Fold:
Amino acid sequence: MKLEFTIMGMVIAALAVSLVVAFIFTPVAKALAQKVGAMDVPKDNRRMHHHPIPRMGGLAIFFGFLLSTLIFVPLDTQLRGMLLGSVIIVVLGIFDDIYSLHAGFKFVVQIVAALVAVLSGNVIQIISNPNIFSSNPYWDLGTLAMPVTVIWIVAITNAVNLIDGLDGLAVGVSAISSMTLMVIALVVSEPVVAILMAALVGGCLGFMPYNLNPAKIFMGDTGSTFLGFVLGVVSIQGLFKLYTIISFVVPFIMLGLPIFDTCFAFIRRIAHGQSPMHADRSHVHHRLIDMGFSQKQAVAVLYIISAILGLSAVVLTTSGPLKAMLVLLALCAAGSVAAHIFMGNNHLNGEKKHTETTRQSPEDSENEGEKS
Structure:
């Protein structure tokens, strides 16, 4: 019992230190971003703001997390690898926020950062078999361990980055996911993972007051890719190594919103003959705005979805197989309904645009041609 109180005390302290550092350092990051020209200029319809806003606020989250981690977590090889990979990601994000680097170059550097973490021991060696009827309850990835782990880390890094489209969205969803993993880590007695996630939650909460609508500063790629990278790496130690049948799906549920949005975006772009990295305005948050939600309402809806997914992940970890299967079935049913509404709205939007186009008179077309 005394040990449990000690761990809880360290978790709370790690969260508090990170929160205070991030809160104090965010105005400094804002001034620095303005000085070096790291400004987000609304140059297309994907942006929801109407005037230049400083980005690179992720530096505050990073420093809060780093300081808290160095104080409360003993450094081992795995942690050193994760922190070194994080530094690479943050440096890449700083240059991207200032100069808008090419997507291909960023992807290569992200792979390098993931390899640094993987070569330091952050590897998915064994995962539970999702086939509950199989005689073998576990999959030993063997030679596939390293490439699978790199793919997972890079995928989550970009998934969090892609949902960073509304004020406070990515930082809030990351805070909810981090809190979910923190609770799971406490339940399954993984104190190091719990403290790391507490530090990440604190950094997010310290930055959030400046980032909520109307945002005074954006986290930029510096913050969104850093959050995704840490979540991707820490989830390896906190979830994939749990040798239970349900542990295979817990990481995907915990990070369900960014994973779903990224997968849907890639499928949609490939279906339209575009590059998967092509930017567009069809992410889930854009669709909520197009449905008539305000920014605050859309973010609140996505917070609630993330919280439900996080709670479901905790239930899956702490409950027996029967309850776990019931939760999974309920999630599948809810996902099917959401997908039906999502696709239905997409179809209606397409029909609306088509109707508006066909109703346009020849005179209007001629006038538009003269204006162009």
Notes: Residues 287 and 350 are 12 Å apart (CA to CA). Strands lie at 39-40, 53-54, 126-128, 138-140. The chain has a mean pLDDT of 80. Residues 2-248 form one domain.
